[in-house]
Amino acid sequence: MALHDAACGCAVLPLRAADAEGRPRAHSPAARTGGGSLKLVMKQFEFTTLKLFLAVADCGSLTTAADKCNIAIAALSKRISDLEAAAGTRFFERRARGMSLTPAGRALLQHAREIIHGVEQMQSDLLLYSRGIHGLLRIAATASAVAQFLPEEVRSFSDAHPGVAIDLSEGTSQKVVEAVLGERADLGIFLEPVSGHELVTFAYRRDRLCVVVPRGHPLAAQARVRFEETLSYDHIGTQTQSSLSQKLMAEGGVGYRVRIRVGSVDAACRMVHAGMGICIAPRLIVENYQGCFSIALVELHEPWAVRQMLVGARSKQGLSGAARAFLRRCIDAGEAELQRNVSGLAGSAFTAGAPEVSRTAKDLSHEAKHAGAPPSYDPALPIADPENA
Question: What is the pLDDT of residues 146-180, one digit of tens each?
Fold first, then answer.
């Protein structure tokens, strides 16, 4: 006789009881077949049960998971026990302090996440089709990328693919990487370096940092300054989790004095205008505020003042058509920017005259790399096609 399960509104076939250790008894179907018939196992691995399994795995506690999923503890416990009985193995170690995954549980966890993500993505895609929209592209990016470059790529992509909806979220470089790894974003755009990730990455664009000072400030008369020279003045900082804040604190040490922290470059420029101090920020963003505030921009003369942005994905093969198209557009934009930079170096060499004119494009690309590109990225080399690399 089938039992009605209130948690998912579906019929679940009852299984023979398991023993105290969670192993199926000898007379159960699972025990007789060494893991249960495929049909019986598949009946237990349905969508709601997998979601409940994920909740227990994430919470490490039946009680917490039951509260999170709005289901009775006894019902949740039975779901997990039935799942283990059908598979013929234990997915959790039951301890006084909670539940931890067994090796079999960790294997199921990976597959369950992929299944849940796939079903949820299918539902999302079908909903978009029902509304006349053909696909969804999820992008996570740093605020710096959004404020400087991404609008160009998003606009051109949207014009070419009007049926694709775009979901753009902002975060620090670390949060962007976590969003892609956690399958909350298809593509991520972030700054090097972010350690410990396993994303496939391609060079995107580079931004340049500058020093923002009030007009009439002693540093405003200089063409460029070293970071050490700025430590004589109070700084206006941004969120401490950002890669820029982390870099400034590492470079400045105890000499880096932050008078006030704000949440955006816009707010930082306003504080500089008000005389609260100076700040270091991406030049292209600050240039938007020069006409609004009484501020001046000074070149920051440091090797780390030029920052490489990357576009990353979990894998090239797993990308949707929309994601592949946008990735290609980002790579093309990075290559075009590199060519402009190389041409600029060549033009400077020509005007300088003498033997500098004889430098090759490869030499100039080498100089562009050492002028600010990270060691892992060689601008003299072509970037592989994301579909063929």
Answer: 999 999 999 999 998 888 989 999 999 999 999 99
Residue 13, CA distances (Å) to 10, 35, 41, 115, 310 in order: 10, 16, 11, 22, 50
**Cis omega before residue 193 (within 30°)?**
yes
Low-confidence ranges of the chain (pLDDT < 50): 1-36, 38, 40, 348-389
Q: What's the token pair of residue 195? A: 């350690």
Beta strands (DSSP E) in the chain are 3-5, 10-12, 92-95, 98-101, 136-141, 165-170, 187-191, 200-214, 224-225, 235-237, 258-261, 279-282, 295-300, 306-313
Cα 62 from Cα 72, distance rounded (Å): 10
CA dihedral 13, 57, 89, 2 (to 10 degrees): 0
Contact call for residues 113 and 182 (beta carbons, < 8 A): no
Q: What are the helix (H) ranges across 71-208?
A: 73-87, 103-130, 143-148, 150-160, 173-181
Are the C-beta atoms of 79 and 8 separated by less than 8 Å? no
Map out the domains of the chain with their CATH numbers.
3-124 (1.10.10.10)
Count the neighbouring beta carbons within 10 Å of the beta carbon of residue 362: 10
CA angle (244, 245, 246) in 5-degree steps: 90
pTM metric for this prediction: 0.58
pLDDT digits (tens, 9 = 90+) for 117-139: 888 878 877 776 666 557 889 99
Q: Which DSSP helix (H) or strand (E) runs through 217?
A: none
Q: Are 81 and 13 in contact (CB under 8 A)?
A: no
Cβ neighbour number for residue 86 with a 10 Å cutoff:
24
